[in-house]
Amino acid sequence: MAWTMLIIAGLLEVVWAFTMKQSEGFTKLWPGLITVGAMIASFALLALAMRSLPLGTAYTIWTGIGAVGAFLVGIAVLGESAGTLRILAALLIVSGLVLMKLSSDA
């Protein structure tokens, strides 16, 4: 269950990163409210997952999902660059996440 909460927390990190961009510096009400709500939910789920997962593992997976997810949303939704080096960087993050999961005792 901890891993499920952690993955959802990471996906909510992508949501709040995207809606923060859409809020244009919190000048738009609804994207700003969604950002704050997703942040609170993401942090809460991360905290719950950390009850049974090691700090280093949980935090690394959470930030990695957020980073790679925001990268993919940026490309797919916002038309950001999908250059070779950017894709390689994202693949290195994903490989680190896989190694972190494989090395976890939980």
Reconstruct the topology from this structure.
Blueprint: H1 2-22, H2 29-49, H3 55-76, H4 84-103
Organism: Enterovirga aerilata
GO molecular function, one term: transmembrane transporter activity
Subcellular location: Cell membrane
Characterise this structure.
- Helix 1 (2-22) packs antiparallel against helix 2.
- The chain has 106 residues and is mainly α.
- The N and C termini lie close together (11 Å).
- It has helices at residues 2-22, 29-49, 55-76, 84-103.
Task: Provide tags for this entry.
mainly alpha; 106 residues
Overview in brief:
The protein has 4 helices and no strands. The protein has 106 residues and is mainly alpha-helical.
Helical proportion, percent range: over 70%
Number of strands: 0
SSE-based structural type: mainly alpha
Largest sheet: none
GO molecular function: transmembrane transporter activity
InterPro entries: EmrE-like, Small_drug/metabolite_transptr, Small_multidrug_res
Transmembrane segments: 33-50, 57-78, 84-102
Family: Belongs to the drug/metabolite transporter (DMT) superfamily. Small multidrug resistance (SMR) (TC 2.A.7.1) family. Gdx/SugE subfamily.
